[in-house]
Amino acid sequence: MVEKVYGVGVGPGDRELLTLKALKVLKKVEKIFVPVSREGKPSLAYEVVKDIVEGKSIEELLFPMIRDKERLKVYYQRAFERVKNTEGEVAVITLGDPTLYSTFSYLWKLLKENNIPVEIVNGIPSPVACAGRLNIPLVEGGEKLVILPRGEDLEKYLEVFDTIVVMKTKRLGEILRRVLRGRSDNYLVGIVSKGFWEDENIQLGRIEEIDFEDVNHYLSLAIIKRIKR
Fold first, then answer.
1. What CATH number does residue 84 fall under?
2. Pairwise CA distance, residues 61 & 83, whole Å
3. Are residue 12 and residue 99 in the same domain, yes or no?
4. Domain of 131?
5. What are the tens digits of pLDDT across the range 62-105?
6. pLDDT of 7-57, one tens digit each?
7. How many domains does the chain contain in total?
8. Any alpha helices (H) in the chain, and if so which ranges?
9. pTM score, whole prediction
């Protein structure tokens, strides 16, 4: 049975943004589990660390991108069993941070329920990393921030928060054009699609200046900031 499980965030995709603690843990564990969304498809999290963990025992865990919660439970349980039945200390890696919309959170729950020692090793989360990529502050002073998956309830929060982060930006252009109609001059929109990867797409400007055609990717993120007058 496994001795301890580390949930290791490897950051947004730039291996130079891997934390020293993550590096230390990855070098000491007996095995590293890497998430894949489809069999035969490379793990992006593994791409970040593969040169660092060369020679380590690597095993894939399948977490398909489906919304059926009951079907997903089957895959999480299978992953849990494989991790649980591994000897020694192991790491489960994830892009970004394990505490922010991460697949690891489901494994964490199963590990805790079964009294298996688990430790989270934080990684640089994508909203912070993408603000840096856009070269803008995420929030300042007393400003308020909200993170919305898929832009849900965007119109509801637009007047409440100074900065809105939208993760998973499918249909975002359509949503933004509708909710910002007549007031686009009051907001700055930043888009980072596939940030830190070879085909990244970075845009910053008013809503009319943004091309949304190539940002319907699950590695896309938008930062919407109210402009101070």
1. 3.40.1010.10
2. 9
3. yes
4. 126-226
5. 998 888 888 989 999 999 999 999 999 999 999 999 999 998 99
6. 999 999 999 999 999 999 999 999 999 999 888 888 999 999 999 999 999
7. 2
8. 20-28, 44-49, 69-84, 104-113, 126-134, 154-157, 172-179
9. 0.92
| Angstrom distance (rounded) from CA 207 to CA 87 | 52
Q: Is the pLDDT of residue 160 over 90?
A: yes
Residues 78 and 163 in one domain: no
Name residue, tokens 């409440």.
160
Q: What is the predicted pLDDT for the residue at 68?
A: 82
Beta strands 31-36 and 145-149, pairing class? unpaired
- Indicate which CATH number applies to the domain containing 216: 3.30.950.10
Cβ atoms of residues 194 and 130 within 8 Å: no
Q: What is the DSSP string of 75-106?
A: HHHHHHHHHHTS-EEEEEEESB-TTSS-THHH
* Residue (of 144, 148, 137, 136) closest to 163 by Cα position: 144
pLDDT for position 67: 80
Backbone angles phi, psi at 212, to 5 degrees: -90, 5
Provide the terminal-to-terminal Cα distance of the chain, rounded to the nearest Å: 59
pLDDT of 175:
82
Residues 138 and 98 in one domain: no
Q: Which DSSP letter does residue 11 get?
A: B
- Do residue 103 and residue 163 come from a single domain? no
Final residue belonging to a domain, choices 103, 121, 139: 121
Same domain, 29 and 42: yes
